[in-house]
Amino acid sequence: MIYQYNVINPYTNEIVDRAPVTAPVEIDRLLERSYSYKCCLSSKERATVLRNTAKAVEIQKNDLAVLITKESGLCIKQSLYEVDRAINSLSQSATQAESLDEQDISSEFISHYTPTTPKLTVITEPWDLAVAITPFNHPLNMVVHKIGPSIAAGTPVVLKPSEKTPLTAMALRRILLAESLPPDMVNIITGTPPKPIVDQMVTFPKLDVVTFTGSVDTGKYIAKKMATHGNELKKYIPELGGNCAFVVLDDADVELAAKIALSAFDNAGQRCTSINRIMVQNGIANEFIEKFAALTDNVKYGDPMDPDVDMGCLVTEESAALIQERVANAVMRGGKLIRGNIRRGALYSPTIIDMVEPSTELVVKETFGPVAPIIRITDVDDAIGIVNAGRFRLAGAIATKNMENAIKYHNSIRVGQFSWNGPPGYRTEEAPFGGFGDSGNGEKEGIIMSVRAMRRIRTFYEH
């Protein structure tokens, strides 16, 4: 008997569908099957599968967007954009697959050890098995960022999507198989509770690579589990939390800065590169807040299926309640509520709070929700000190007309991704992506880097 669990629409609390609870014996069987599978497709054939899948996703765009919205609460407007991003990511993965045959490098050099001139061949080849674990907030594109590069590289992958949003990943696999991907090239494990499933997957002795996107606590737990289980060391690619700061200096274009600040509410703030805190120089603070609040008033939030809605709900009611609690605590400590802090179930309003103390939980921790805490600063050095007192090094941004201040801020905070006069969350699918500190270990994602990470590199010297 196959046990199943309910996948719940966080806005309506209705059952969207049911997903399998993968039994422990079946988890081992799927991992073993993927490990034993040796990809029979050439890089050109894998590229064709990926391009055809991109076309099929385009055809099914509306259906996939509706599924994303129903299981995650992301508004349909942004779900459609998510599908567009996934199509681009599939196409980028195909492009990388097409170039793989050109990446074996042969070069000659003078050896320091022999009088001969050995020929060096750098060999890149698929790993035997990768495990990928994805979060709820990008149910399609994040999954594509894991399995697209794996397919391009020829590395079999076993994916565990979030237990909250497994249906989109399952739909994508069905499309891949319909486009002639061998079944054991991508297997999916679903179920709840997630911890024992993750434990079993990341300690499977034959795996080569684990790629994980999620919270810092879970990311560290996985690293410890992998290191202490007794297996050989494995490659680990964690992409963890953000807590990104957006700095607005006195010389900034205030209208532009206010528009950038609105990205704090994209995906209801449930992005690792969302603006989590806004640091505004004193001289421009009041004007900035006035313009930002006016723009926020125009953000329509509500039923995620409404095509006119700009922001849907959070993934659970518990998440929304936690955010409301953190905002209330920040107000108790002197913060001034400008807009929002209204909750109905999992739906939480776009919220602005001024005069926030940098030491409040709302600022120190990654708040995965549509909240824009404002901290007033004296200068760019003040902002640098606040950011560097934290643990996260994923992304940052600054609004200023002064390039020297922009470069100084960028060089001083050492984040993985930075925008000058743009939102910290801006990225292209193929570009390197990932942070430092509690945001990651320096390994990079993005399609190009992920394809490389999914290939084993060896050298052969011909003397």
TrEMBL record:
<dbReference type="InterPro" id="IPR016161">
    <property type="entry name" value="Ald_DH/histidinol_DH"/>
</dbReference>
<keyword id="KW-0560">Oxidoreductase</keyword>
<dbReference type="InterPro" id="IPR051020">
    <property type="entry name" value="ALDH-related_metabolic_enz"/>
</dbReference>
<dbReference type="InterPro" id="IPR016162">
    <property type="entry name" value="Ald_DH_N"/>
</dbReference>
<protein>
    <submittedName>
        <fullName>Phosphonoacetaldehyde dehydrogenase</fullName>
    </submittedName>
</protein>
<dbReference type="InterPro" id="IPR016163">
    <property type="entry name" value="Ald_DH_C"/>
</dbReference>
<comment type="similarity">
    <text>Belongs to the aldehyde dehydrogenase family.</text>
</comment>
<dbReference type="Pfam" id="PF00171">
    <property type="entry name" value="Aldedh"/>
</dbReference>
<feature type="domain" description="Aldehyde dehydrogenase">
    <location>
        <begin position="5"/>
        <end position="458"/>
    </location>
</feature>
<dbReference type="InterPro" id="IPR015590">
    <property type="entry name" value="Aldehyde_DH_dom"/>
</dbReference>
<dbReference type="GO" id="GO:0008911">
    <property type="term" value="F:lactaldehyde dehydrogenase (NAD+) activity"/>
</dbReference>
